[in-house]
């Protein structure tokens, strides 16, 4: 996987929820996307541990990022009100799904974690990410809190993968143009409705 450049980001942006997942079916599924699905299916079918699966899926995803024939035009359509999700594939047995996320400038997620392992790759533009650690309450009856552990800027072609626990983060488009990323999840998000396990409304150090 590519090494991601790190940069501190001071200005928080308003979090928005994604629009409902729009499925991609029939002729909108490109030949390159079909090949990517087969490559990911082969990796997931090995039944390896989640962190290793995420690493190997990232290796398969990276060569396709930026290719003009990966996504159909409608997969790149955004939503002025919130970042948008396009479901590209959901495996019949629930083993994985692929989603294209389209971010207009300033659009952001809340702080969240995930239901499964996840691999993300930036297809166009760049995504900013802040990763957090969850600290338990300092005393009985107190509240847990978040500590920002790392800021990264994921540019076109960047790939990262992770598996719970320790996958708490927030993502936003801090650039001046639309960003498009592909997300591969080890779960059927078409059935679950989201890859998010929990949204964290907790004090954070920044």
Task: Give me a quick take on this structure.
The protein is an alpha+beta fold and 206 residues long. It has 3 helices and 12 strands; from the N terminus they run ββααβββββββββαβ.
Number of strands: 12
- Low-pLDDT runs: 1-17
Averaged pLDDT, please?
Answer: 81
CATH superfamily placement:
Jelly Rolls
Helix and strand run: EEHHEEEEEEEEEHE
Which structural category do the helix and sheet elements fall into? alpha+beta
| Helical stretch tally | 3
| CATH level-3 fold name | Jelly Rolls
Strand content: 25-35%
Number of domains: 1
CATH class: Mainly Beta
Q: What is the architecture at the second tier of CATH?
A: Sandwich
Family: Belongs to the cysteine dioxygenase family.
Pfam families: CDO_I
GO molecular function: dioxygenase activity
Keywords: Dioxygenase, Iron, Metal-binding, Oxidoreductase
Task: Provide a descriptive summary of the structure in words.
By secondary structure, the protein is of the alpha+beta class. It has a single domain (5-9, 20-135, 144-189), classed as Jelly Rolls. 15% of the residues lie in helices and 33% in strands. The chain contains 3 helices and 12 strands; from the N terminus they run E-E-H-H-E-E-E-E-E-E-E-E-E-H-E. The strands form 3 sheets. A 6-stranded mixed β-sheet has the order 2-3-4-11-6-9, covered by helices on one side. A 4-stranded antiparallel β-sheet has the order 1-8-7-10, with no helix packed on it. A two-stranded antiparallel ribbon has the order 5-12. Helix 1 (31-44) runs antiparallel to helix 2 (50-61). It is globular. The protein starts with a strand and ends in a 7-residue tail after the last strand. Mean pLDDT is 81; it is low at 1-17.
């Amino acid at each position: 996987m590519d090494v991601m450049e790190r940069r501190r980001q001071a200005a928080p942006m308003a979090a928005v929820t994604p629009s409902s997942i729009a499925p991609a079916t029939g002729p909108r599924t490109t030949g390159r996307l079909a090949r990517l699905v087969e490559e990911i299916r082969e990796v997931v079918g090995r039944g390896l541990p989640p962190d290793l699966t995420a690493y190997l899926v990232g290796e398969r995803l990276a060569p396709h990022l930026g290719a003009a024939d990966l996504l159909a035009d409608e997969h790149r359509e955004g939503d002025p009100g919130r970042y948008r999700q396009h479901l590209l594939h959901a495996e019949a047995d629930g083993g994985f799904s692929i989603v294209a996320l389209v971010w207009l400038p300033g659009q952001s997620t809340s702080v969240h974690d995930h239901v499964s392992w996840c691999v993300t790759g930036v297809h166009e533009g760049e995504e900013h990410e802040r990763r957090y650690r969850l600290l338990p309450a300092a005393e009985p009856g107190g509240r847990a809190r978040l500590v920002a552990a790392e800021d990264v800027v994921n540019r076109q072609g960047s790939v990262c993968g992770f598996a719970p626990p320790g996958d708490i983060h927030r993502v936003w488009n801090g650039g001046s143009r639309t960003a498009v990323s592909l997300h591969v999840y080890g779960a059927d998000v078409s059935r679950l409705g989201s890859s998010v396990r929990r949204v964290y409304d907790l004090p954070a150090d920044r």
